[in-house]
Each structure stands twice: as structure tokens, then as C-alpha cells.
Amino acid sequence: MSCNPELLEWYEACLQGEKGEKGEKGEKGEKGEKESIEITCVIYNNVKNRGIGKGYDDFEMMDNMVEYCGQTKGRSDYLIRAKETLYLEKHGYSQEYTYIGLVVEIVDKMITPSGVPNRYILKIDDKHIHNGYKSGDILSEIPGIKKGRGSCWSKRSSLIRLGFEEKGNFTSGIIPVKLRK
Hints:
Shape: globular
Distance between the termini: 37 Å
Order of helices and strands: HEEEEEEHEE
Strand content: 25-35%
Helix content: 10-25%
Number of domains: 2
Largest sheet: 8 strands, mixed
Radius of gyration: 17 Å
Structural class: alpha+beta
Number of strands: 8
Number of helices: 2
């Protein structure tokens, strides 16, 4: 019986206590060693926002590029950094977020007048696997998390599934994170 060499390498790394492609280490660099990727922020994009009331007009991903509108006041926009930010989407009025991938490049940033969100063109690596989740996986609800108005249960569940805990305001679309201990 033969085994995929990459799968075997990942399994051995897990046995040694490293997380490999499923966690902090990330993908292989040019020389074959694993380069360290430290995730510091998660973007939550509600794609249902189509210019209703707040000036938002977020578009779904096409060719690994997405147009994302930052926050209305831009307070946390500075947290969006290439190779440090994960991107999640929620379509329509679905309850749970979908993991899309790692932001690998900020292709363009359009600064807008005060009160109108800045616009970003982000290049997403949809091959990036984080904590066992790959692009398109739904980050389902964790039983026991308090639900209700203002509880942000969907964001809390997705952060726990991705192996993080929050460091900032949960009502924001851009949340700073740190690894769970």
C-alpha cells in the first residue's frame, strides 16, 4: 500500500506536535522548508450588502480576487495585511460563515471620503488550509454558544473552529485574533 508523501509528511509533523499546513506553519517556501505564517486578523464579509444604506457594495470572489469594503469609519482597516489575514464570507442571510482563504496580496486600496468605506482589491489564496479547513468549508455552529441578538455566535463559532480567540470588538467585520491556548 502506497501513501501520498505530502500526507505522510503532514502526519509525521502532527505526531511531533507541529501543526504543518493545518496551523501556524503554512505552506512550503522556495527552499522546501515551511515558512511561518502568523494570522493576526480575520475579515468577515457579509456579501448580502449591496449598497443598502451604508455605501457597501461587496462583490463575491472571481479569479482569486475579491473587492472588499472596509469599515465605515476605517478604524480597523490597518489590520488587513498580506499573509496575516484570513478571509471569510457569509452569503445572503445564511447564518454561518464560509472559509475562503488567506489574503496573499493587497492589490489595490482606494481611499474614500470620511463616512464611506475604503475599497480594497484582495488576492486570496484559496489553496491555503487552516486548522483543517479548506476554501469553501462552512464553519458551522458550535453547540453551547449563546445565541441571540448581539451575541455574534456565528463569528465566535468560526473563530473557535479556526483555532483562535478574539482580541477586539466582535461586532466589527475586521477582527484581530490570537491563537487559542
